[in-house]
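Data deposition worksheet. Section B asks for the primary sequence of the deposited chain exactly as it was used as input, without tags or linkers unless they were present during the calculation. Section C holds the resulting structure in token form. Section D is free text for depositor observations; keep each observation to a single sentence. Incomplete worksheets are returned to the depositor.
Section A, Depositor: J.P.
Section B:
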Amino acid sequence: MIVIPDARTAALYERWRHVRATTERDVAEPLVLDCVRRLAADPGGEAAHVWVAGLAEMTGYLAWRPEPATARAAVEALVAAAEAWGGQECGHATHPYEEELAELGGNDGPSGWYLIGESPEIPRGEADLCPSNVAGVARVAADVIAPFSVPGIPVAVSEDHEQDVKDLLDFLNDYPYGDPAFTIECNAGAPHAGSNRGVLAGYVITQHVSAPYVHHRIGVRPVFDAMIEGLEKALEMLAYTGGVCPHAEGGHPDLEELYYETEAEIACHVRTPGGRAHLVENALDEGEGELWVCPGFLRELAEDALGQLRPRHAELFGERDTGALDAEFVRPDGRLAIDALTRVILAEDDLADPGTAGDAGLWAARRHATATDPHERLVLLHIALWCASVFDLPYGVGREVRALLRTLDEEPLDRDCPHGDGHPDSGLHDNAYRRERMKPHLDHLYAPGEFAAPDDAYPAAVWACPRLLADRAREPVEEMDERYEAMDEEDGDDASVLR
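Section C:
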């Protein structure tokens, strides 16, 4: 039975086991350098497995924020040990380091205990000190410290990471299984302090490949908040680790030519040694792997993603300044420029995007809060109702429009009104109707002396019918309540106050 050579080494091993990513340099560096010197002096010697085990236990520190020269020396010593111990024939079908590769946690290094002596919890096997196992542990430890730095690691992809690739591609291809916002938000949790380079790269690449989809398809603020916060934290970590980009300008993959399928696969598999071996074998050109973990390239990816997310966040959830629209929608005499207002509101062809119509609807809701003329207030209310009914208003717009609609009394829905079925047809889903019919109705309703009455014009009393207004408001308010649920919880649902 192989045991720890002496009491001093046993004591050292106990200290190695407690060196983590967050261990202070003045504590970790002497322990690491002692191990490196001893291994480099005799990488194939009788005690080399002890020093390999020590460096394996301290990969958390070495992969996070060591002195750069210390990390380089550790990798060189581990590679020398792998070369010295590797290539020897043995009769083992598999080795302990291979068995843990697929399940190796994203921030974990290889186990070192079985290279030194018995563990009271786990029995040793005969393959533990096989030269191939010593070499394998050395390779994996080197790759955790410096991803893609050493060949010969077996391909090992966990089922979880395979599923992660599938989940990413499902929503990127616009065929999500379940709620894509939930999947994206789960992926976007800020990276942990101490994440090794592979894990940090995987995080940044995941957010980058998701950003265009989120920009165009997601309207839920917690998703944006999580991604922006996480990417900002990743940029801090990239600066904190002091990683230097060694590549000349233009030496990184072209962001404009990245295929999202390949990027999604890299995002998930770059996190572990066995996954990186899979990428080298199946997805990357020779020498390309190191580019995907380069601090300079990761900064480019993070900044590119933030450049997509921050403006969209402000557009969707920020408070809108509608003051400039006064000049467009209010005449010099103080009356509404109704023709300009309805032209903006009703001329939009794309029902999926509120565009400028959303801002005009918000302007109408805010104007309604300060207007004193009941007739003007009625027209502004119908414009706000129209926008809420036709468009999926972003939260920064819809919360204030909804606040106005919530002021409408729902009690008339429970009783008949004198108009029976004689209410205006909303024409919400008929583009031709809203362009050709709804606009003249609203123009005439506001300024009957300036705009001719449509053939089927309704009296103002019908447009002001409490039952009509409550009926028009009910569905959009319910839909916004559902769509804004998570954001309301964050804001305490203070949308009842119009600004």
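Section D:
Confidence is low (pLDDT under 50) at residues 494-499.
The two ends are 77 Å apart (CA to CA).
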